[in-house]
Task: structure prediction
Amino acid sequence: PLMSNAAVEASTLAAFVRLVGRAIAERGADPEVVMRRSGIDPARLLRPGERVPRTAMTRLWANAVAETGDPAIGLASGSLFSPAASRALGLGWLASSKLRQGLNRLSKYNGVVTSCVNMKLVETDDAVALHVVPSGDETDLAAEAIDAFFTINARMCRLVTQRDFTPAAVYLRREDPGVGEAYREVLGVDPVFGSDHDAFQISSEDALAPLPGADAELAAELDRLSERYLAVLETGRMSASVREILEELLPTGNPTLENVARVMQRNPKQIQRKLAAEGHSFRELHEQTRKAMALRFVRDPEVSLSRIAQMLGFSDQSNFNRAFRRWAGTSPGSFRKSAVRDDD
Result:
């Protein structure tokens, strides 16, 4: 079953897996046969929020190449991508003010699409590069998956810049599969095969240029949706639900366990037992939610620090300042100034 291992094994969003199926079909093979051979039930891929475990994805890429004879099928899969396939992450990328922000969103929330990899933004004086590495105990990734990710990057960069965007460079650990023309056509550059890392690099000029579809308010709201979705994946259902309700109750001044239980229509002791089974406590989640909301609100210069302290239930500004310094290692004012500089 697709979701049975999702809590312990890294997984990929089913909407992305369907792209692989479409690419297989375009090459004259039967995607359902390939899916089932890989341990994937095609019917379940249509369920909202469905995810496929890492082991099944690894088998799928290998079987897709074997069945179609196309070593670059990852390029074809990525070329079929649309922003909505990655839930709020893709839409938030579209609302970014700069390409650097979009790539940063991808590195921060890439788990929405797949938790099989970690993505890190590496900046130099003249370039910004998104590095992709395996997550967890894995030592390698399917080369086709990296091809797909970087094809999606190129596609998204063209969508948000509204021009024929070309990356500065693409580095791939895989050896040259002998279809260089396909890479050049999709990515716009000849990749550097046999590199010691996988990276998608753009120039600093491109990274910092304003984007025509920028909408900071919308992007922030979409980030919040991505955070909520990841919370469900990274923790159990009960702790994710409690966090969500705490976000709603904190500004009202009533974020008690009893009030959360009332909203959920559950017994408080039942909630405590389920949280304990997931390795959490109500007090811990209350603190974590307060911290997450504080970090998010302080980034918004239109919300006063005194208002944030009030919304998060602090008795006065000095108590909020002490708590924030404990969470972030600096004062709310200094954190806000740093965040504004990063956004620029």
In short: Residues 173 and 207 are 24 Å apart (CA to CA). DSSP finds 17 helices and six strands in the chain. Residues 1-8 have pLDDT under 50 and may be disordered.
